[in-house]
Design a protein that fits this description.
The complex is a heterodimer of chains A (about 260) and B (about 425). With about 260 residues, chain A is of the alpha/beta class. Chain A folds into two domains: about 160 residues, Rossmann fold (3-Layer(aba) Sandwich), CATH 3.40.50.700; about 90 residues, no CATH class. Helices cover about 35% and strands about 10% of the residues of chain A. Chain A has a five-stranded parallel β-sheet, sandwiched between helices. In chain A, strands 1-2 form a two-stranded antiparallel sheet. Chain A is globular and about 55 Å long. Chain B has a single domain, classed as Cytochrome-c3 Hydrogenase, chain B, CATH 1.10.645.10. Chain B is α+β, with helices and mostly antiparallel strands. Chain B contains 15 helices and twelve strands. Classes of the chains: A alpha/beta (about 260), B alpha+beta (about 425). At the A-B interface, helix 1, helix 2, helix 5 and helix 9 of A face helix 1, helix 2, helix 4, helix 5 and helix 6 of B. The complex binds iron/sulfur cluster (SF4) (3 copies). The site of one iron/sulfur cluster has 14 residues of chain A, from helix 7.
Chain lengths: ~260, ~425
């Protein structure tokens, strides 16, 4: 795990092994586990980066890093401070997963007042919490990796791009494109709702491949047409509540969700 | 020898989530030993209120990245119990197979990546890639098999997509099941090698009597639903889980704590084994015997070995499950769901111990109240008392700071705590 392996190449392009650190704020740690949990490519991944901080897996810690992968959303004042410190040290700060990019499932609690939320779970016992926020609300973010969880193939591609000095490009089109290419039966045809028409691709239509409708974990595609999806949902007999549940689940569509919530209530 | 030690470990490594250990010894006398939980709560029980039933398994899986399958299954079971849905035999088999593979992958992750480095004198698994590559590759092979089966049966290994209330969205193909059967058969060699590796480790000899809580099997080693039991003789029905958990708040933790017949109890592989040893597969019993592991064992460090025994058990039982699945006609994957008002509880044994989900629904199937009791929160009090006892004995024996620090960390790690899960 030293940075001394000079002359390493990937597909003939020289790569340097950037010193990389992983951190987590409020999260399920699933995005980090996506890396530990993919044994066939774990070793290849470790040859691309020099991991200097990965509390989930190692005792040693170091403050000298170039790339910081930050998982989770910000929900407490000490996390604001931690995040600012990470920002000061990192050359590239990556929002890692939908909690970090959009607030993730954590932001569902923002539907309620902080006082009610605390009381519902802890009664009169004092605990501190704030509204769940994406990293961007607190510090500047250089790169976002969407997904709940992130898809390891995409993470690897992005890391290779960083290591070989290329820029990172996201798909602009929606999940539906991937789903059609995968020749899946469309879920609407078997009576299931799906956010595939408006959600940014890149997961290779992970959920529809298992006959499970998309919940929009990767946030909106470029030019996402929510109005048109509303019409499709209505035509197939799904309520606005069902659409809202999906739009607000991971935080990526929060502006659209807010609008619908206001019209329903 | 009179020793003085001041140990403070901030954000203990190689555990899931954020916890601190603090130990203070003055002149050979223990002043303080504390297991603190500083994780930020995410308020899952609040954020689900008002949501329709179908949101719960999908969202609750996100309580934990390691045992998302267990959370999803507990959530589904609670909903099915509330709505009066009985899963088909096919669904039950597939869920258990999926559950077993999560247990295998989680135990292997803990045994090899989190626990073994302590015994091998390393800070992480990474240097072992160079120094003991065959060990790392074996761990990777075992995990990969478990994860591949999870991908196939559950749709994906993390935050599964095929598991829904009423059954599955899709079934694994016969060909896939046959391939997995072969791979499971081949994996028994790796399990034996794992047992041999752990036989070379010196498991600390530390015994403190406590109570062990788990599901109680009737004819099988239990994982999904059923009665609740403890080694002190408590016996309750699944829906009476609150009488087993008795949660309360303490200052040193953002996670709740639990107690039953004594001031603390333990859940997890060792607790399951202590309550259900007779139902282990024969090969698993043999593995237990290699380590002299018999019920009731009160050494918390033996939880590692209990996990190893369970790895053997789940592999052999999965072989039986696949045989049964292949021998039966494929049925419809999924039943109709009709929501109704009421309360449902789902108790599931996840890798770190017994997990409960409980929801109260209105007539339209919207959640009025939600309660999730996590294995690690049930273990926190027991970890605290073990830590006091261990530190006290170390102080008397005049152990060095370094030794105490390592032992304390190994103790907490033996419980395989999942802290972000416990502060959900
Ligand atoms: S984005 Fe999803 S998988 Fe990743 S940490 Fe958040 S909840 Fe877990
Ligand atoms: S299933 Fe979803 S993603 Fe696939 S084509 Fe239909 S709407 Fe699009
Ligand atoms: S299909 Fe939708 S919900 Fe599923 S992973 Fe892709 S973007 Fe996320």
């Amino acid at each position: 795990m030293t940075n001394s392996e000079q002359g390493k190449t990937y597909l003939g392009v020289p790569v340097y092994r950037p010193k990389t650190a992983f951190f987590e704020l409020s999260s399920c740690e699933g995005c980090q586990l996506q890396l530990l949990n993919n044994e066939s490519s774990l070793l290849a991944f470790l040859s691309l980066v020099d991991v200097v901080n990965f509390r989930e897996a190692m005792t040693e810690r170091s403050d000298a890093f170039e790339i910081a992968f930050v998982e989770g959303s910000v929900t407490r004042s000490d996390e604001v401070e931690r995040l600012k410190k990470i920002r000061e040290k990192a050359k590239i700060l990556v929002a890692f997963g939908s909690c970090a990019c959009f607030g993730g499932v954590n932001q569902l609690k923002n539907r309620f007042s902080r006082e009610w939320t605390k009381k519902e779970v802890y009664g009169e016992h004092a605990v501190e919490t704030e509204f769940a926020r994406p990293l961007e609300d607190v510090v500047s973010v250089d790169l976002k990796i969407f997904g709940c969880p992130v898809k390891k193939e995409e993470v690897e591609k992005i890391i290779i791009n960083i290591a070989t000095g290329k820029s990172v490009i996201y798909p602009k089109y929606p999940v539906c494109m991937e789903c059609k290419a995968n020749e899946n039966i469309c879920l609407f045809d078997i009576g299931e709702p799906c956010l595939g028409p408006i959600t940014r691709a890149g997961c290779d239509s992970w959920c529809p491949n298992s006959r499970f409708g998309c919940w929009g974990c990767r946030g909106p595609a470029d030019d996402a047409n929510v109005e048109q999806l509303k019409v499709i949902m209505k035509k197939h007999g799904f309520s606005e509540e069902t659409l809202l549940d999906r739009l607000e689940c991971f935080g990526g569509f929060s502006d659209f969700a807010k609008e619908i919530r206001e019209t329903i209530s | 020898m009179k020793i003085t030690a001041n140990i403070s470990i901030h954000h203990l490594a190689r555990v899931e989530g954020h916890g601190n250990i603090r130990i203070r010894i003055e002149n050979g006398k223990l002043q303080e030993a504390k297991w603190e939980i500083v994780e930020t709560p995410r308020f899952f029980e609040a954020l689900l209120v008002g949501k329709k039933w179908e949101n719960a398994p999908w969202i609750c899986g996100r309580i934990c990245g390691i045992c998302s399958i267990g959370h999803t299954l507990a959530s589904i079971r609670a909903i099915e119990n509330a709505f009066g849905i009985v899963p088909s035999v096919q669904t039950q088999r597939l869920r258990l197979l999926l559950k077993h593979m999560e247990t295998l992958q989680s135990h292997v992750l803990h045994l090899y990546f989190l626990s073994a480095p302590d015994f091998l004198g390393a800070g992480s698994v990474f240097p072992l890639i160079q120094s003991a590559p065959e060990v790392v590759h074996r761990a990777a092979r075992l995990k990969q098999l478990a994860n591949d089966i999870c991908d196939c049966v559950g749709g994906r290994r993390l935050h599964p997509t095929r598991t829904v209330v009423g059954g599955f969205t899709m079934l694994p193909g016969r060909k896939e099941l046959e391939t997995f059967r072969n791979r499971l058969r081949e994996t028994t060699g790796d399990l034996l090698a794992t047992a041999e590796l752990f036989q070379t480790f010196r498991i600390p000899d530390f015994v403190r009597e406590t109570e062990f809580v788990s599901l109680k099997g009737e004819a099988e080693y239990p994982f999904i639903g059923g009665d609740l039991a403890s080694t002190d003789g408590a016996h309750k029905k699944e829906h009476e889980y609150r009488e087993m958990t008795n949660e309360y708040m303490v200052e040193q933790s953002t996670s709740k704590w639990s107690r039953l017949s004594r001031r603390s109890f333990a859940v997890g592989a060792l607790a399951r084994l202590n309550n259900n040893f007779a139902f282990l597969q024969p090969e698993a019993k043999e593995t237990g015997e290699m380590f002299g592991l018999k019920p009731v064992n009160h050494n918390p460090f033996m939880n590692n070995i209990a996990q190893l025994v369970e790895c053997v058990h789940v592999v052999h039982e999965s072989l039986l499950l696949i045989n049964e699945l292949l021998a039966s006609e494929q049925e419809e994957p999924r039943q109709e769901v009709t929501p109704k008002g009421g309360t449902g509880v789902g108790a599931v044994e996840v890798p770190r111990g017994i997990l409960y989900h409980c929801y109260e629904f209105d007539d339209g199937g919207r959640i009025l109240k939600c309660d999730c009791v996590i294995p690690t929160s049930q273990n926190h009090a027991n970890i605290q008392h073990d830590l006091e006892e261990l530190a006290g004995r170390c102080a008397e024996a005049g152990r060095t700071d370094r030794e105490i620090e390592l032992l304390a960390q190994m103790l907490v790690r033996a419980y395989d705590p999942c802290i972000s899960c416990s502060v959900h």
